[in-house]
Inverse folding.
């Protein structure tokens, strides 16, 4: 079974998003593409495909699946690129997962599981000409951006584009997700927000106590308290335990810059192509969101 503390959207909107100045096109594309890109974490089939390789817990499948494009990278490299894990968390899985399978096998299994999930959820949509056109346009956008400063995106770009139309749509969404994620990390670093602090910022912006947020609720109480205290000392969290005005401003700047940095791939599309892509993705995104169980 998938645990509740799964991956959250990279650079996602919170309660204060409406006050922020954002790149509306990039934000809208994020809303439409993210339900596809997050399918490895929101559906059971990808997990089942990874378990068939010999894994026995979700986090092994997560690290093997997402880190596979990096090859046999060390825990230190994966930790640096993923950014948002507590000290020692990555090293519990990398390089151990490569004693169970290879990066190539992990990539293939993850893709197969995601295709199976997308076919189940989207049904007859995947056989329509509009779906094939959306896969074409999304791939055009996803393969058009420069790699410089985008290590996760660059690693995934090195993987051949699949022939199967559903796999191609998933691959394009994954590329765009990692492209956005690389930019989100840059935005966080500009604001001096660390990886664990980013989760606290995200939770509090949603109106959720940090201690209840899935990605960090498992941390030792003292460790999480130290993160929160550090943010309070910097003025990001008020005495009431919620985001201060300064904290909300930081969150809004991170989101706005993340959106700006995520816009480049879509510049490869003509305005009519972008409108066509959005119109086709809207019902697909709605179906995928409705199928999520988190």
């Amino acid at each position: 079974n998938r645990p509740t503390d799964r991956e959250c959207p990279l650079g996602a909107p919170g309660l204060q998003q409406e006050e922020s100045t954002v790149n509306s096109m990039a934000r809208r594309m994020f809303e439409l593409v993210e339900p596809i890109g997050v399918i490895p974490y929101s559906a059971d089939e990808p997990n089942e495909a990874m378990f068939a390789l010999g894994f026995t817990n979700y986090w092994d499948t997560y690290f093997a699946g997402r880190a596979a494009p990096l090859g046999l990278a060390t825990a230190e490299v994966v930790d640096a690129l993923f950014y948002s894990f507590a000290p020692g968390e990555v090293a519990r899985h990398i390089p151990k997962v490569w004693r169970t399978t290879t990066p190539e096998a992990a990539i293939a299994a993850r893709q197969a599981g995601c295709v199976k999930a997308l076919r189940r959820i989207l049904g007859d949509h995947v056989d329509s000409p509009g779906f094939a056109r959306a896969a074409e346009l999304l791939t055009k956008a996803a393969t058009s951006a420069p790699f410089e400063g985008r290590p996760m995106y660059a690693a995934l770009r090195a993987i051949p584009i699949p022939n199967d139309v559903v796999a191609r749509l998933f691959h394009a969404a994954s590329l765009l997700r990692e492209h956005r994620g690389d930019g989100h990390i840059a935005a966080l670093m500009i604001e001096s927000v660390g990886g664990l602090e980013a989760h606290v910022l995200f939770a509090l912006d949603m109106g959720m106590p940090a201690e209840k947020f899935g990605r960090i609720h498992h941390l030792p109480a003292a460790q999480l308290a130290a993160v929160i205290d550090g943010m309070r000392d910097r003025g990001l969290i008020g005495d009431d335990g919620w985001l201060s005005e300064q904290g909300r401003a930081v969150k809004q700047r991170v989101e706005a810059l993340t959106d700006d940095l995520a816009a480049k791939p879509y510049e490869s599309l003509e305005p009519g192509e972008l409108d066509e892509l959005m119109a086709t993705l809207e019902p697909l995104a709605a179906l995928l969101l409705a199928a999520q169980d988190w």
Q: What stands out?
A: The longest helix spans residues 165-190. The chain has a mean pLDDT of 93. The chain has 13 helices and no strands.
